[in-house]
């Protein structure tokens, strides 16, 4: 039997390894931008087309590469960051594994243009699928420009698994934001299909956060700063009232490297304990500076996981720093032991015997219909004078007699055979009063039935009604809209703006009228007619948050959108309803296809029978 084990060709090995490093276009962008930062660039430009599927280009003004380095950088395990194994414990650069460029070149068409400042000519290298097509000298600006075209062209299975352009663009924006947040001292620009999404000058960290997420974040940030012998912490956290239902605005950076760490996230959430609304997540952008020898970042190819030498101490310091900032800036209620109390005794209280209870004076002879003229003698006043003086018509009770007479005359004009029938129709509403409902704690509706009574969760019932109504509108594309008297402007971050573009036809089908106004702004001209007394911008923001937060893969895009809007537009607990409102709600509920089950799989109606009530009271029916 012949030998069956053999070495794989370099091209095949590179494609296999590329799956660990480059999972989608955003992964390639992260590696290229980090290489530009390691090259010392202070001006980085990102250009993409078709959400990175057709083109990814990163241009920087870094140190550039020589002719030999330009060719060698595409070899596996070729790096300028480390020289020996001991260097792994003193890493301050973004990259060090030497796999990114080789992985990208194995699955795309790559063109590299680079020139050092001291060189007169630059170098151009063209590679397709790990194979060097050509290399030649050419004019080029100082720095490096890398163009990645047709990503995954030779791995069709991986390319077919890529999501839509809007989804891939959101992943790219997430990676861009992480790199831009970690380096506010570097200029960044981001162009997508000819449109500039970001233009970030060199600035402070707070300014960078505001430029990335919007001007309204300026009032939401609280600074955090802590210096210890183990580590240093600085950055910003968000105020509790601005916490969101979805994750995505939580950033940890260890030595300027973005990481994902549930353990550290738990420390921050623990600091917000009892002051954060339920099921919400606060904003935080926190930087941890620690001795590289105390951590290990060579854990995962994406370098987003880190092992710590003393993670319990880091947890305690982080929690303490966040909690101190929350108390220092009066976000949480605190006791001020340094308050000046010398002014509290300036007002001397009166003795108890001098305190008198307040009294009420009134005139027992006051007549609101009096014209103000005092009457010294009693005299006869004619009825017409009373009417003229007081403004009260006389014989007012005869008005009801006239009405009854007119109704009797109208009934007498009907034919004899229709007289009894019509009179019965007129009297019927007063003889058969409407069914009465009762509201319990402004949350539940109680309705009597023949076998007992039923208890209805008014919010869950309204959510079910709206969900099926919105589903029907999405199916027929006939959502009714109510024009806004004063159109509102809603400013979104680029990721949410891309999300709205992806679901804009469905939003219009629900009755929203949106039109783009600038790069990341929409004008709201109308909202669904069924939504009353709702702020347009707030309902759209909540709609997007819940739409992103849903993880039920069984629902398609339209069902997720209808569910999100129904949840936010429904009546909330504590809303008082009159008898007509409760009756209308119950009628619409029982007209639904699934009136008994809420949108979240919980019961809407609970029925109690007379037998159950009798058993609770110890009786037998």
TrEMBL record:
One term of GO molecular function: endonuclease activity
Keyword DNA repair (UniProt): yes
Keywords, sorted A to Z: DNA damage, DNA repair, Endonuclease, Hydrolase, Nuclease
The DNA mismatch repair protein S5 domain, residue ranges: 209-327
Residues covered by the MutL C-terminal dimerisation domain: 436-577
Pfam families documented for this protein: DNA_mis_repair (PF01119), HATPase_c_3 (PF13589), MutL_C (PF08676)
Task of the protein: This protein is involved in the repair of mismatches in DNA. It is required for dam-dependent methyl-directed DNA mismatch repair. May act as a 'molecular matchmaker', a protein that promotes the formation of a stable complex between two or more DNA-binding proteins in an ATP-dependent manner without itself being part of a final effector complex.
PANTHER family attached to this UniProt entry: DNA MISMATCH REPAIR PROTEIN MLH, PMS, MUTL (PTHR10073), DNA MISMATCH REPAIR PROTEIN MLH1 (PTHR10073:SF12)
NCBIfam families given in the database record: mutl
Protein family (similarity comment): Belongs to the DNA mismatch repair MutL/HexB family.
Protein name: DNA mismatch repair protein MutL
């Amino acid at each position: 039997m012949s030998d069956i084990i053999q070495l794989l060709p370099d091209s095949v090995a590179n494609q296999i390894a590329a799956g660990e490093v480059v999972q989608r276009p955003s992964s390639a962008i992260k590696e290229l931008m980090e290489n530009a930062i390691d090259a010392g660039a202070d001006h980085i430009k990102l250009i993409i087309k078709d959400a990175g599927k057709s083109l990814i280009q990163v241009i920087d003004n870094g140190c550039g590469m020589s002719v030999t380095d330009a060719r060698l950088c595409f070899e596996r395990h070729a790096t300028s960051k480390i020289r020996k194994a001991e260097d792994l414990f003193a890493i301050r650069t973004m990259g060090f594994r030497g796999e990114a460029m080789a992985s990208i070149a194995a699955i795309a068409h790559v063109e590299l243009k680079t020139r050092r400042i001291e060189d007169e000519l630059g170098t151009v290298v063209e590679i397709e699928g790990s194979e060097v097509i050509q290399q030649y000298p050419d004019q080029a600006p100082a720095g490096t420009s890398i163009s990645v075209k047709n990503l995954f062209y030779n791995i069709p299975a991986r390319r077919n698994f890529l999501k839509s352009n809007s989804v891939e663009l959101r992943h790219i924006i997430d990676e861009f934001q992480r790199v831009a947040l970690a380096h506010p001292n570097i200029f960044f620009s981001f162009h997508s299909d000819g449109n500039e999404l970001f233009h970030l000058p060199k600035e402070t960290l707070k300014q960078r956060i505001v430029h990335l997420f919007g001007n309204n974040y300026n009032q939401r940030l609280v600074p955090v700063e802590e210096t210890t012998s183990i580590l240093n912490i600085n950055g910003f956290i968000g105020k509790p009232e601005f916490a969101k239902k979805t994750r995505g605005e939580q950033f940890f950076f260890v030595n300027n490297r973005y990481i994902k760490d549930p353990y550290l996230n738990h420390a921050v959430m623990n600091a917000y304990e009892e002051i954060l609304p339920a099921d919400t997540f606060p904003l935080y952008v926190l930087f941890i500076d620690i001795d590289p020898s105390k951590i290990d970042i060579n854990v995962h190819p994406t370098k987003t996981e880190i092992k710590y030498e003393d993670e319990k101490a880091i947890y305690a310091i982080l929690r303490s720093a966040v909690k101190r900032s929350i108390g220092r800036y009066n976000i949480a209620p605190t006791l001020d032991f340094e308050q000046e109390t010398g002014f509290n005794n300036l007002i001397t209280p009166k003795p108890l015997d001098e305190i008198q209870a307040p009294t009420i004076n009134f005139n027992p002879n006051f007549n609101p219909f009096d014209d103000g003229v005092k009457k010294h003698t009693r005299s006869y006043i004619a009825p017409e004078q009373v009417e003229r003086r007081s403004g009260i018509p006389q014989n007012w009770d005869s008005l009801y007699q006239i009405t009854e007479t007119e109704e009797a005359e109208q009934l007498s004009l009907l034919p004899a055979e229709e007289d009894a029938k019509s009179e019965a129709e007129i009297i019927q509403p007063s003889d058969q009063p409407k069914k009465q409902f009762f509201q319990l704690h402004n949350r539940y509706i109680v309705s009597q039935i023949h076998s007992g009574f039923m208890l209805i969760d008014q919010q869950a019932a309204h959510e079910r009604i709206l969900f099926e109504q919105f589903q029907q509108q999405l199916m027929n594309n006939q959502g009714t809209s109510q024009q806004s008297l004063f159109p509102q402007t809603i400013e979104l971050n680029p990721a949410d703006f891309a999300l709205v573009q992806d679901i804009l036809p469905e939003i219009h089908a629900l009755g929203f009228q949106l039109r783009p106004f600038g790069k990341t702004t929409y004008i709201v001209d109308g909202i669904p007619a069924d939504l009353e007394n709702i702020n347009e911008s707030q309902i759209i923001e909540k709609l997007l948050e819940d739409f992103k937060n849903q993880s039920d893969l069984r629902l398609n895009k339209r069902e997720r959108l209808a569910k999100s809007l129904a949840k936010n537009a429904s009546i909330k607990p504590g809303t008082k309803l009159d008898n007509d409102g409760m009756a209308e709600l119950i009628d619409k509920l029982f007209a639904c296809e699934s009136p008994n089950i809420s949108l979240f799989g919980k019961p809407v109606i609970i029925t109690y029978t007379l037998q159950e009530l009798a058993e609770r009271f110890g009786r037998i029916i």
